[in-house]
Amino acid sequence: MKTITLFLAALLALTAPALSMATAATAGSEAKLISVTYTKAQDISPKSFNLQAGQKVRMEVNSQDTGSGCMKDIKIAGLWEKPEALVKGKKVVMEFTPLRAGSYKITCSMGVPRGVITVK
Ligand SMILES: [Cu+2]
């Protein structure tokens, strides 16, 4: 009886990674949605994100205020180089697939940091 239990436990341990790999492969075909809110008082929220290399991402920034001055545009160094204006009521959509692990700064158009994306 004990032998059978051990055998089943070993079998589960072997099949579990295969199952999680299948899940990852399925998720890879669909963009992961990241929803961000922008206000003048808080800037973007949340400010830090963890992503997986190879996972397609759709990042939406919902502006509740219109950005002004230095922080009126948003971009992501290495992932979304085109500065997008933050306009009240307008949704900025950035779709990208980070391919390399690393730390990517979310900034204004001049490069002042406002958040970070960590890719593993
Ligand atoms: Cu700036």
Structure description:
- This protein folds into 2 domains: 1-29; 31-119, Cupredoxins -  blue copper proteins (Immunoglobulin-like), CATH 2.60.40.420.
- By secondary structure, it is α+β, with helices and mostly antiparallel strands.
- Mean pLDDT is 85; it is low at 4-12 and 14-28.
- The protein has one helix at residues 2-28, and strands at residues 32-39, 43-45, 48-51, 57-63, 73-76, 80-85, 91-96, 102-107, 113-119.
- The radius of gyration is 20 Å and the shape is globular.
- Bound molecules: copper (II) ion (CU).
- Copper (II) ion (CU) binds at residues 70-71, 108, 110, 112.
List ligands, each type once.
Answer: copper (II) ion
The overall number of domains is 2
**What is the gyration radius calculated from CA atoms?**
20 Å
CATH overall fold name of the largest domain: Immunoglobulin-like
What overall geometry do the principal axes of the alpha carbons give?
Answer: globular
Helix and strand run:
HEEEEEEEEE
The CATH superfamily of the largest domain bears the name Cupredoxins -  blue copper proteins
Please indicate the percent range of residues in DSSP E strands (runs of 2 or more): 35-45%
State the separation between the terminal residues, measured CA to CA: 42 Å
What is the arithmetic mean of pLDDT? 85
Give the spatial strand order of the biggest sheet. Answer: 3-9-8-5-6
The biggest beta sheet is recorded as: 5 strands, mixed
What is the helix content? Answer: 10-25%
* Low-pLDDT segments, ≥5 res: 4-12, 14-28
Total number of beta strands: 9
CATH architecture classification name of the largest domain: Sandwich
Please, how many helices?
A: 1
Structural class: alpha+beta
CATH class of the largest domain: Mainly Beta
